[in-house]
């Protein structure tokens, strides 16, 4: 019983937190490497190609191209923290799509539905507090940071707005992809095979597009600096690892559960900035993190209650059918006699 609980609740929770940490790290690495001159077309193609080669042997052992383009072009025009902030739209997008496609029940008088809606709103609000409210400085730092929400030097206001719109479009596409993946996993529950085929198709589609758009051959030569680290990291963790984790959790817990982890990315980004980049820690970050945690707990509680209710209904149906079977057998035996 304890092992099943750990597999169905503890393991997906830990996996999704790890995936969000790697996503934030990937955005930071890409932003740093793009400032070194790495083209995002080169980055996307290399990322998919490395991920495909990485998963190729796993397919035999273990049996959104457009979304990525919008995401990394948006990061290039803006910042990694803005990408984390706008990713808070993903739970709302996913919940709306899940209701439209009848993957989530929208019973407004039900406490579980109310907890999901309120938890999502509260978690998004907490993330927005982290982004837009600084407050007094808790831990000061004199270092500059590439994780600032404000427009970096050399970035125009128009590019900043376009970057935000591209990031919003990216999160809408990812929400739709979560819905599609969940349906695919119901028909073919083989996570590694599905992710491998997705990455293979993405590599085949992205190759001609990126090669045509990025015609400068020198851009495809990776220098042994942060750009090479970003590309390798993205191939190992950005696509392959995270895609497998997301697909497995979609199969096990559903699209709303996966999307609700997105607001955590802004807190993770702020924490990484303090720990690794020497950023200042503000009171707003702490308050926002507390609000986000409350909303996040609300959604997780609602999903847990929903699963318990489903398990109870399944057990009740199973026990009732078991109770009827002996009676049917007794009637048959009486007829034989």
Topology:
Blueprint: H1 2-35, H2 40-61, H3 65-77, H4 80-86, H5 89-100, H6 111-132, E1 137-139, H7 157-187, H8 191-213, H9 226-253, H10 255-259, H11 264-276, E2 281-282, H12 283-336
Antiparallel strand pairs: 1-2
Helix pairs in contact: 1-4, 1-9, 1-11, 2-8, 2-9, 3-7, 4-11, 5-7, 6-11, 6-12, 7-9, 8-9
Commentary on this structure:
The chain is an all-alpha fold and about 325 residues long. It has one domain. The protein is built from 12 helices and 2 strands; from the N terminus they run H-H-H-H-H-H-E-H-H-H-H-H-E-H. The chain has helices spanning about 1-35, 40-60, 65-75, 80-85, 90-100, 110-130, 155-185, 190-215, 225-255, 255-260, 265-275, 285-335; strands spanning about 135-140, 280. A two-stranded antiparallel sheet has the order 1-2. Helix 5 (about 90-100) packs across helix 7 (about 155-185). The longest helix is centred in the C-terminal third of the chain and has 54 residues, at about 285-335. The two termini are about 45 Å apart.
């Amino acid at each position: 019983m304890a092992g099943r609980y750990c597999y169905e609740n503890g393991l997906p929770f830990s996996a999704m937190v790890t995936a969000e940490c790697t996503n934030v790290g990937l955005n930071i690495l890409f932003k740093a490497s793009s400032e070194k001159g790495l083209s995002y077309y080169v980055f996307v193609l290399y990322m998919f190609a490395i991920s495909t080669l990485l998963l190729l042997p796993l397919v035999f052992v273990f049996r959104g191209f457009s979304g990525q383009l919008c995401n990394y072009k948006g990061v290039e025009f803006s910042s990694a923290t803005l990408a984390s902030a706008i990713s808070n739209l993903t739970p709302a997008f996913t919940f709306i799509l899940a209701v439209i496609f009848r993957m989530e029940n929208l019973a407004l008088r039900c406490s579980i539905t109310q907890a999901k809606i309120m938890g999502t709103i509260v978690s998004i609000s907490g993330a927005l507090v982290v982004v837009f409210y600084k407050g007094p400085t808790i831990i000061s730092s004199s270092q500059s940071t590439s994780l600032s929400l404000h427009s970096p030097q050399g970035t125009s206001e128009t590019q900043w707005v376009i970057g935000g719109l591209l990031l919003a479009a990216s999160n809408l596409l990812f929400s739709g992809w979560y819905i599609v993946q969940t349906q695919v996993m119901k028909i073919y529950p083989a996570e590694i095979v599905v992710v491998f085929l997705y990455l293979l198709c993405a590599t085949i589609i992205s190759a001609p597009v990126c090669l045509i758009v990025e015609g400068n051959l020198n851009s495809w030569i990776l220098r042994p600096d942060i750009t090479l680290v970003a590309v390798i990291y993205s191939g190992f963790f950005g696509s392959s690892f995270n895609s497998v984790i997301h697909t497995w959790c979609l199969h096990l817990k559903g699209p709303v559960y996966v999307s609700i982890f997105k607001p955590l990315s802004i807190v993770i980004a702020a924490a990484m900035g303090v720990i690794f980049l020497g950023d200042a820690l503000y009171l707003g970050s702490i308050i926002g993190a507390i609000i986000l945690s409350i909303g996040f707990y609300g959604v997780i509680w609602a999903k847990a209650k929903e699963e318990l209710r489903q398990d109870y209904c399944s057990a009740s149906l199973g026990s009732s059918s078991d109770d009827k079977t002996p009676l049917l057998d007794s009637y048959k035996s009486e007829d034989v006699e």
